[in-house]
Amino acid sequence: MHAPSPDEEDLEAPLLNDRRSVFVNNPDPTDFLKQAGSEPFNIDNPTHAEKLRHLWYLAFGHDPEGSPELPADPKWKRLGFQSNTPATDFRGGGVFSLDMVIFFFQNNPEEGKKMLNDTSGQNGYPFVPACINVTVLILHHLSLTNCVPPVDSSAASARRKRMMLSILSQNIKEAFGFLFMHVMMKLHNMWLIESQKPDHTLLQFGRTLELTAICVRTLVNNSDSMENPSDFDYVMDVNPESWYTWISNSWDYFIDCVHMEA
Fold it and tell me: Which of 1, 118, 189, 258 is 20 to 30 A from 124 via CA?
């Protein structure tokens, strides 16, 4: 069994340092995020494997039965992986999406563990694969990845993208992590509400992803009123099914078209 390394035992160890991450010092947030999001997850890469073990430790601590083996072990399903081989679930989001899940557990461990526990029930969704989907969804909306999003999602206009990237550039190594974290919490809250409906099953999770895509669009559309990443909690108040949200996003689309023609 794998024994936690000193880095794994330090829950406060920074996620985004040079050794653990694909991140590099790059002042351009577009290039920075494209580079970070383009690295595929490789189970044979010792750094990637270490990150996966670190996520296990952050989620479950010192498991008396030991941490799961790599490349395959049934225990990985406890994190929501859909098979004994976790690497297969990273095909879309790559190692960057793993960085995002680790960031979540490092910066909001209680919420992360609660969400993981919520998803372990009968109506739960696959937690880590959902995190991968959310990472791709955000990157796609900002035109920062060539990966196909999990649901149909429009790309932000160049104007809205610039405004959001301006906020992210304040501390690109952490700001995207907080953006991901808030969107993931929004998805989870919507799923909890949907799961209370009669005859609700995992088959309806696609609908929750569609609503999450609307929330991401609404958040980015309102980035002109935000000053720093702490304002990303705005997404928690978005009602993706309301007429107000639909009218607001339609109006923003009209304004963006006017700017393009000007």
Answer: 1
